[in-house]
Amino acid sequence: MQMNAEELREIVIKSYKLTVLMPKPSKKEGKYAIESRSKFKSLPEALRQMEDASASITHFVKSAAYFLPRKDAGTRPDQMLPFMDRLLEYVNELNGSGVDAEKVREKLQYLIGYANWNADAICAVLTANGGDKAKSEGTIRNMLEAELKVVGAGDEVEKVFELVKGWLPYAGDVHAGAEGRDRGQWGQARTGQQQRRRY
Amino acid sequence: MDMSDMNQKAWEIAAMAMIRKGRVIESYSTGQVRFFFEQARFSRFKSAIKTQQSQYSPQPSDGRSGNDPRAIADMRQRVEKNKKVGEEVISVMEVLPARERMRFVQYLLWNIKIIEQLGGNKERIGKVLSAELVRDPEAVLEKLPEMQNQQRDRRYRRG
């Protein structure tokens, strides 16, 4: 697909806005990962299941609305709704943008693909740095600077970095894995509200 | 019937199959809907569904006695839903080849589950319909049973 610089910039920024609505990374057996990762990983498959682009968009949306909020061991259904709402918002924007269905399908493939890569990259950074807050944030900031400048979105680095920081597994957060919660490895004191949310 | 028409019908029938139970919304019978799903691959689906319709006898839910007026009304509603939904399912399956019938019942099942998972929230369901490029979302939304707060709001508006 021929995508111009402005389209690519928009997709990359939106992909981060999707990533930060996935369940936060948590530590399990020494590695950081997000819960229910397979639900997100399998989303692009739905876009490839049908030849007709318009039918494949319908199938993709239905499959997302069916599988994302389904109960599983890792996440509660309501945890998936913010991600699903934003994804639907982006699909509706693309549908209404006047481009043909084939282009919408390809843009969605990039959007979801990048959102998954973002999550994987951030988890890899956390794992490589042993969850160290300062080191991880430094690496993520460098990563964002390099990536966003290439697509002409250097002016968005701070905003995206703030979004990503809010998604990182701070100690005491309800989304953090058992190891993270118990060790408080990012040195953050739990607030009373956070403490209450756990029970 | 093209894919878009088929999806429209799958949504309308899914909305038609829902009942309100207190504060939740659910399909009138998961077992009956699964039965439709199983019949889609057989050429004699019509007679199988009709036989099943005539034999359908829902049990009182929530441990109520069969003589409880609310249980009687609930059971009657489920029988009526089963008749109507079964007829609609047959009318769509009759015009579809076997492979498309399978897709139709899969979408019917998914749509029912989506409505349940979204708690019957019309705004959220409307966004799904719009993203799916459903031609006539209103025809789907108007078939959904109203939730308690929606009924209350309507009463207030009437004054």
Strand content of chain A: under 5%
Order of strands across the widest beta sheet of chain B?
Answer: 1-2
Estimated helix fraction of chain B: 55-70%
Could you state the order of secondary-structure elements of chain B as H and E? HEEHHHHHHH
Describe the sheet with the most strands of chain A: 2 strands, antiparallel
Largest interface: A-B, 20 and 17 residues
Low-confidence stretches of chain B: none
SSE order of chain A, one letter for each helix or strand: HEEHHHHHHHHH
| Count of domain modules of chain B | 1
Q: What general form of chain B does the structure show?
A: flat
Please state roughly what percent of the residues of chain B sit in beta strands, choosing from under 5%, 5-15%, 15-25%, 25-35%, 35-45% or over 45%: 5-15%
Number of strands of chain A: 2
Distance between the termini of chain A: 49 Å
Nearest-angstrom radius of gyration of chain B?
16 Å
Uncertain regions of chain A: pLDDT < 50 for 5+ in a row?
A: 171-199
How many helices of chain B? The count is 8
Sheet with most strands of chain B: 2 strands, antiparallel
Number of E strands of chain B: 2
The helix-and-strand class of chain A reads: mainly alpha
Per DSSP, the total helix count of chain A is 10
Description:
The complex is a heterodimer of chains A (199) and B (159). Chain A has 199 residues and is mainly alpha-helical. Chain A is built from ten helices and two strands, in the order αββααααααααα. In chain A, β1 and β2 form a beta hairpin. Chain A is globular. Chain B is mainly α. Chain B has one domain. In chain B, 67% of the residues lie in helices and 5% in strands. In chain B, strands 1-2 form a two-stranded antiparallel sheet. In chain B, a hairpin with a 2-residue loop joins β1 and β2. In chain B, α2 packs antiparallel against α3. The longest helix of chain B has 25 residues. At the A-B interface, α4 and α5 of A face α1, α5 and α6 of B.
